[in-house]
Amino acid sequence: xxxxxxxxxxxxxxxVYPGAVVRFLRKGTQETYVFGHASMLPTEEKMTATHVxxxxxxxxxxxxxxxxxxxWDQGMIDMDDSLQYWLPxxxxxxxxxxxxxxxxxxxxxxIPHRDQxxxxxxxxxxxxxxxxxxAGQRVHYTDTGFILLGFLLEKLxxxxxxxxxxxxxxxxxxxxxxxxxxxxxxxxxxxxxxxQQANGQVLRGVTHDPKAxxxxxxxxxxxxxxxxxxxxxFVQTLFEAASHETPFFSxxxxxxxxxxxxxxxRLRTYGWDLIGPTQQLFHTGYTGTFMxxxxxxxxxxxxxxxxxxxQDHRAAYITHRDEIVASYLKESQT
Length: 334
Hints:
alpha+beta, Beta-lactamase, 9 strands, about 35% helix, 2 domains, seven-stranded antiparallel beta sheet, Methane Monooxygenase Hydroxylase, Chain G, domain 1
């Protein structure tokens, strides 16, 4: 079914990524493929389908977007609410929840010495960032919006964000192999390592994104570690809700996800990109993860790799990833 896509995945391995776990879902069936190595340093380790990945920005859609949509569906928030309404310490009243969820807030994101700040200092810095006055006019993808949305959720629930994510997403969906740092030594042994740092340390069981690493349990942009089975559980829940009302996702949420919330060349809905002829939900993660979900045709493509291990060759990966996505979009229409 996906012969060319699978060929492309193998083509640049291990130059682009040491290994990957890939799953195709199609109308109740699934195909899983395991490639290469989970680790190259300090020792080589074969990849398995049970390895746990730092999903990076997939956290934005699996966790942050999901919880916010459920809050919206339950009448706790409105998409037109300003962030300032919920976080008075944030001073730009022009930035709305819907702007942050669609990456149209037009917020200046520069924070001097960002990676040297403490969690408290970094949060305070984010709360000073303002829009350039053009919120809602164009899409510009950043982590900032979802970090601010994480602060909003903590204000709503009065709990650390990772506790909210576990209670609202991971536990209800039975995502038992997913979680957030810190991890035990035994748990870390099944986690795919990411980048080797300047001091020689290879990150394993530690969040790759430096902002999320500093913010720890308060980061809404990254930090979720998960397996292909657990990501599948999330996707299957979307499929179920697209065909009938479910306790987790209402039909109202699914219909909102299907609708473009932006205009122009790059269509986005809440949290997700919309791509391809059937406007599939699409999101990527910096560490080498992505997923495509077609709610209309009930099919999906989950790709989990360790492309930043041991070093980050981003440009080569993006070129290769885009070829894989284009191939899948073509083959999935047959």
